[in-house]
Structures are given as C-alpha cells and as structure tokens.
Write a structure and sequence with these properties.
Elements: E1 5-8, E2 35-38, E3 43-46, H1 49-60, H2 65-71, H3 80-93, H4 97-122, H5 133-144, H6 153-186, E4 192-194, E5 200-205, E6 217-226, E7 231-234, E8 243-246, H7 252-258, E9 266-271, E10 291-300
Antiparallel strand pairs: 1-2, 2-3, 4-5, 5-9, 6-7, 6-8, 6-10, 9-10
Length: about 325
C-alpha cells in the first residue's frame, strides 16, 4: 500500500496563564487540530475532528479483512498493493453503471471458474465426455452477447441436459445392477438369512429379552454403511452412543428386523433399496442403495404411566 508519512502531529493548545503581579487569569486559547499526511501522490489533510474520525473509521473498517480476503476471496496477501489499487479504482467509479457491469463480470468470472465449471464438469465424471474450460468460457460469453451463430441457447440447453440425463440414467442402471449382484452374492454367505421381503440379516449375538412390537420405542446402537464401505451414520461416534425411536418410524428394513430381534441382540442387516430409501437421495446415500447396518437392541422403553382420571368434584347445590 502507499507509504504514508506523517509530516506533523496534532498541535494542542496549551493553557496560558499570566505571571504578572496582578495575578489575573487570561482566557484559555486552543489552536485548531491539524494533521497532514502525505501519500505517494497526494497529501491527506486532517483539518477537523470529523476529518480525523473519518480517517480512523477507514482504518477501523479493515479489522478482520485480511482473513476474509484469504479465506473467502483467495487473495494472496503478497499482492496487497494490487488489491489496494483495485479498491481505489472501484471506490472512485462504483456509481458508474459501465464500471459496475465490469466489476460484476469479474465477480461472475471468479464464480464460474471456481464453482460453476467444476460443478458442470462433475456431471460427466466416469463418462467419455471431458469438458473444455476454454470452450465453456466461449459458450458462456456467446450467450451473454446474444451470439447464436453456433447454437441458439435453447438448442445448447437441450443438448447439454439430454446428455447429462442419459449419462445419469446409465450410471444409475449400472449402480442398481451392482447392488443387486452384491445382495445375490451376500445371500450365499454363511449365516446370512433372507426373509420373504428380501431383507437379509446375520445374527452376531442372539438376545434373550422381549421382542418389540412395531409401535414400541426402542433404544439401539448402530452403524450404517453402503456396499462400498462408506459409513454414512454411526451412533457409536456420538455421546451418548444410543438412539431411541419407534420401530414403525424408520425405514421398512429396520422395522422388520427390530420386531424380530429379542432385546440384547446384535445383528447385521443387509437392506435392499426397496426396503430403504429407494430412488430418493438421503444425505450421502445415493438412490437405489443397498444399506448395511450393525444394530444392537439395548432395550424397549417402557410406556409412560397413564395418569388416573379422578371423578370431578360435585359442586354444592345452589341456594334457593
């Protein structure tokens, strides 16, 4: 930033007192505060208290700015001289509509490069399409300039969206087949049992307690993951490690399994997508995912005792 040199500091008026033999007190005089600061090109003169306060306000307004520039705007602080020049230019022209449009273009360019292009590129991950950043930029600008010499916007939109949808459907179909194949293979493993609904489970520990009803509230510990090993939820990582809910207020695979488990049991569940979230995305869980859960049934919560209803007290008969 511009080197600031203080030429003079505030000259404060001193109270003058006469030492004459009369001992009379003279009026106090105070000189005007005046601070002159020289920048590289022009002086900054602080001639009034308002001037001083304005200058101080500007300095105060930069508190916390450097971390923001680094973390949110990716500014390298080695280039603060350039940042200062940009600030001065923009501050002077910020009400000029032409300049406002220019600045907006700069901001959208940063957003397009850092967020929009990577996001659109991600639609083609795993396919034979590799987006070109240079041609993406040219297409973006041609749309802004109403240049339809290659594609009208409507044609470009349809071309892009149709291809993305086709890739998504192909990847989804492949994922569905992967999950079906995984379940078919898992069903053949030792100790794995399959119910009529398609739910698979393996008993690790068989408890000896009561089996909950669908309407019972149970206390459990659990961990859930997908077939690729991605853990999407775990009560073991929380404090307390237990969770409680009604058996009929969770996915179908859980409801079915819990109502078969005696208290004290620890089972591993293999839940097909139709007994889980189906075609819906649920946080990290992709549509059509088979879910694997380790579940420990700790207890069944007792229902709260119902308060006894007392007969209403009889009112005394009204006097006639």
């Amino acid at each position: 930033m511009k080197k600031i040199v203080v030429l003079s500091i505030a000259i404060l008026a001193s109270a003058s007192f006469s030492t004459a033999s009369a001992g009379k007190k003279k009026d106090k005089k105070q000189k005007q505060e005046e601070v002159v600061v020289v920048a590289e090109n022009e002086p900054v003169i602080l001639a009034t208290p308002s001037d001083s306060m304005s200058y101080a306000a500007g300095k105060t307004a930069t508190q916390g700015l450097i971390p923001y520039l680094q973390q949110q705007l990716n500014v390298d602080t080695a280039y603060m001289e350039d940042f200062a020049k940009g600030f001065e230019e923009a501050y002077a022209k910020i009400e000029d509509p032409k300049y406002v449009a220019y600045i907006a273009g700069s901001q959208i360019a940063q957003m397009a490069k850092q967020r929009i292009f990577p996001s659109m590129k991600g639609n083609f991950e795993g396919s034979d399409i590799a987006l070109s950043e240079d041609l993406f930029s040219k297409g973006f600008i041609s749309s802004l300039k109403k240049d339809n010499s290659i594609y009208p916007d409507s044609v470009a939109n349809k071309l892009f969206n149709d291809r993305v949808e086709a890739i998504k459907k192909a990847q989804q179909a492949e994922y569905i087949e992967q999950n079906k194949a995984w379940l078919a293979d898992n069903a053949t493993k030792e100790g794995v049992q399959t119910t009529a609904s398609g739910l698979q489970y393996k008993v690790i520990t068989m408890g000896t307690g009561e089996k909950p009803k669908a309407t019972d509230k149970v206390v459990v510990k659990y961990e859930g993951k997908m077939i690729d090993g991605t853990v999407f939820d775990s009560s073991y990582k929380r404090n307390p490690q237990t969770s409680s809910f009604r058996c009929d207020q969770v996915i179908k695979g859980w409801t079915e399994a819990l109502t078969m488990m005696p208290v004290g049991s620890k089972w591993e569940l293999y839940i097909p997508e139709n007994l889980a979230y189906g075609e819906r995305q649920a946080g990290q869980i992709k549509p059509y995912s088979t879910l694997i859960f380790t579940v420990e049934l700790e207890s069944i919560e007792a229902e709260p005792a119902k308060a006894e209803t007392k007969p209403a007290a009889k009112k005394p008969a009204a006097k006639k």
